[in-house]
């Protein structure tokens, strides 16, 4: 059985690591033996162990060019007969390249990109670092085009495989809207917008509150559910700012704050329209999950959002920070139920065809097979 490893040398834990663990879990039923190489005592290591992932703990590099670490990594890969290595963090590109160039020439390298890279800063350096990589997985067409332009990476090696979700988990849940609203103590007879995120400026939750005021002034009866998370003192301050803002806008009875817990499906079932103010969607793929749940979506114009929403054919796009444009898009959805139903249906279909786990796993397994066949050929 072919052996494959994912590699992350650091001790940070975020969306990239969560997505990687999810992918490893989905691939565990495939014909490949999957392992994870990471640093001891890292959050990634601990969570991977809880999920019964095969882990090799390797002390993280001491220096930018740490030949001792490269040698240890190479020895492990050879001893375990691992012939394909996926790098998930940009910081590990150099180390993987060193291993291949100096110690393990037949190793197949894949960069598993899951975030936006600042390639403009050192384009020539990235061009050199990516040269030993046999493939580069990009999460979107736009990011792939951007990377090819700046690094001159071989186009035939670039593969677009979007990040995936378990779409059926969100589409097939039977919780009724009435029951969901009862759980969250929400009014049953109003249109409710839903926004989710941490309590900080990144998610621009204050913009949604101002939109509720705009809608009320234009005689539209709309509520807002903010499903928020706070942990730091600054986030608590922002949460208090939102409460005061709702009061100043005289919409405090229309803005509902709920603490984000493990009730994401309940959140989706309780709202009518999902709104986001982020141009670049976070790793948790919350917009994809909303669309899989059968919700219409409103997001600001950006290359990534336009690609996801097919230039407005799968959801509404508005000009960022344009309150009137955003609010008018909401009015359009709530006064045109046929259009809203169309976006809900087509958006959900698109998620199943492009972003469901079955599609993503099939694409990445085909890539694995191609690379391993080339190695053995």
State the CATH class of the largest domain. Alpha Beta
N-to-C SSE series? EHEHEHEHEHEHEHHEHEHEHEHEHEHHH
- SS summary, helix count: 16
| Contiguous uncertain segments of 5+ residues | none
Shape: elongated
Q: Profile the largest sheet.
A: 7 strands, parallel
- What is the arithmetic mean of pLDDT? 90
Number of domains: 2
Using the 3D structure, state the CATH architecture of the largest domain: 3-Layer(aba) Sandwich
CATH fold category name of the largest domain: Rossmann fold
Rg for CA atoms: 23 Å
Q: What percent of residues adopt helix (DSSP H or I)?
A: 40-55%
Keywords for this entry:
six-stranded parallel sheet; Rossmann fold; alpha/beta; seven-stranded parallel sheet; 13 strands; 377 residues
């Amino acid at each position: 059985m072919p052996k494959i490893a994912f590699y992350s040398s650091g001790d940070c834990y975020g969306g990239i690591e969560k997505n990687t663990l999810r992918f490893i879990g989905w691939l565990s039923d495939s014909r490949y033996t999957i392992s994870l190489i990471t640093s001891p005592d890292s959050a990634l290591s601990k969570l991977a162990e809880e999920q019964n992932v095969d882990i090799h703990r390797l002390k993280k590099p001491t220096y930018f060019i740490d030949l001792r670490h490269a040698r240890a990594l190479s020895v492990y890969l050879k001893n375990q007969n691992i012939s394909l290595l996926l790098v998930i963090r940009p910081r590990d590109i150099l180390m993987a390249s060193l291993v291949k160039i100096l110690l393990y020439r037949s190793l197949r390298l894949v960069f598993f990109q899951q975030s936006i890279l600042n390639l403009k800063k050192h384009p020539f350096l990235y061009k050199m670092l990516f040269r030993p990589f046999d493939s580069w997985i990009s999460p979107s067409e736009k990011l792939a085009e951007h990377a090819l332009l700046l690094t001159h990476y071989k186009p035939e090696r670039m593969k677009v495989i979007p990040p995936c979700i378990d779409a059926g988990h969100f589409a097939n849940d039977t919780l009724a809207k009435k029951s969901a609203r009862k759980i969250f103590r929400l009014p049953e007879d109003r249109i409710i917008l839903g926004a989710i995120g941490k309590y900080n400026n990144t998610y621009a939750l204050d913009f949604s509150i101002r939109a509720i005021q705009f809608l009320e002034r234009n005689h539209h009866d709309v509520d807002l559910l903010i499903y928020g998370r706070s942990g730091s003192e600054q986030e608590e301050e922002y949460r208090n700012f939102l409460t005061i803002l709702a009061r100043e806008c005289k919409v405090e009875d229309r803005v509902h704050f709920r603490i984000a817990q493990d009730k994401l499906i309940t959140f989706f079932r309780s709202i009518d329209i999902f709104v986001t103010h982020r141009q670049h969607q976070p790793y948790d793929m919350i917009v994809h999950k909303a669309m899989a749940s059968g919700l219409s979506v409103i997001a600001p114009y950006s290359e990534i959002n336009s690609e996801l929403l097919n230039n407005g054919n799968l959801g509404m796009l508005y000009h960022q920070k344009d309150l009137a444009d955003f609010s008018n898009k909401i009015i359009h959805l709530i006064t045109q139920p046929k259009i809203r139903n169309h976006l809900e249906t087509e958006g959900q279909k698109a998620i199943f065809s492009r972003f469901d786990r079955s599609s993503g796993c099939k694409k990445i397994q085909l890539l694995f097979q191609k690379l391993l066949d080339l190695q053995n050929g």
